[in-house]
């Protein structure tokens, strides 16, 4: 009788622990028991206003990399909101994306994070001005035609305009579409699909690579 009682207690303990563990894994997705590692140490290095770059995988992104001679095809700006990290990015549509999710959208989850060398410029008041200015773009259509207007907007244009118009910082000089490598057949294919025979070669353009190569920025994290 005692053996049956002890056996019952052991089984009850195992089942209770198992249920508690299951609940903990559901409520706390980053619980160590789940096998997922939290990047807390890395994320602690990230600051409001940092700029993050990645390699996206699509025909258009491949064309961007070829035309700009760069591994980067997408970028966004980091915003801390209520203690959480988000990437404000121009996709379809322009939106805030949780940083952890944003990273998984890039090739092999790789990314590079850059920051102004003179961080004193980004005072709390300036950061708030940048966030307030950003609201006018939230929900706007992605600009697949790379036009230099505010009607639609693409990723590097979004970051450039936020820094320029809200913080007074010109991260890079604007270039013309004709300044990029447009001779590759993969680039030609995208241009043909977008513009037909009327390619706007004189259109102002800023590419992710232009921002990544800015001499105003320093690299904080590089996972490539």
Summarize the structure.
With 224 residues, the protein is α+β, with helices and mostly antiparallel strands. It contains 8 helices and 8 strands; from the N terminus they run ααβαβββαβααβαβαβ.
Structure write-up:
- Residues 1-38 have low confidence and may be disordered.
- Strands 4-3-2-1-5-8 form a six-stranded antiparallel sheet. Strands 6-7 form a two-stranded antiparallel sheet.
- The protein has helices spanning 2-27, 40-43, 59-68, 99-104, 124-134, 155-167, 185-195, 208-212, and strands spanning 51-54, 74-81, 84-90, 94-98, 112-116, 175-176, 204-205, 217-222.
- A hairpin with a 2-residue loop joins strand 2 and strand 3 (84-90).
- The chain has 224 residues and is α+β, with helices and mostly antiparallel strands.
């Amino acid at each position: 009788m005692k053996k049956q009682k002890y056996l019952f207690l052991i089984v009850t303990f195992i089942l209770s622990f198992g249920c508690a563990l299951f609940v903990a894994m559901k409520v706390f997705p980053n619980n160590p028991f789940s096998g997922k590692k939290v990047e807390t140490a890395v994320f602690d290095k990230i600051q409001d206003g940092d700029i993050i770059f990645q390699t996206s995988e699509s025909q258009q992104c491949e064309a961007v990399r070829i035309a700009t001679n760069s591994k980067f095809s997408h970028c966004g700006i980091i915003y801390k909101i209520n203690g959480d990290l988000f990437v404000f990015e121009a996709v379809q549509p322009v939106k805030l994306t949780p940083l952890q999710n944003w990273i998984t959208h890039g090739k092999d989850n790789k990314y590079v994070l850059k920051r102004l060398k003179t961080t004193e410029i980004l005072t709390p008041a300036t950061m708030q001005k940048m966030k307030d200015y950003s609201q006018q773009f939230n929900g706007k259509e992605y600009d697949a035609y790379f036009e230099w207007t505010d009607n639609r907007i693409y990723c590097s244009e979004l970051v450039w305009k936020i820094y320029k118009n809200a913080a007074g910082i010109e991260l890079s000089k604007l270039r013309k579409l004709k300044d990029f490598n447009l001779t590759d057949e993969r680039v030609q294919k995208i241009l043909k699909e977008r513009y037909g025979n009327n390619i706007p070669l004189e259109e102002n353009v800023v590419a992710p690579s232009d921002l990544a190569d800015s001499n105003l920025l320093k690299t904080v994290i590089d996972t490539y």
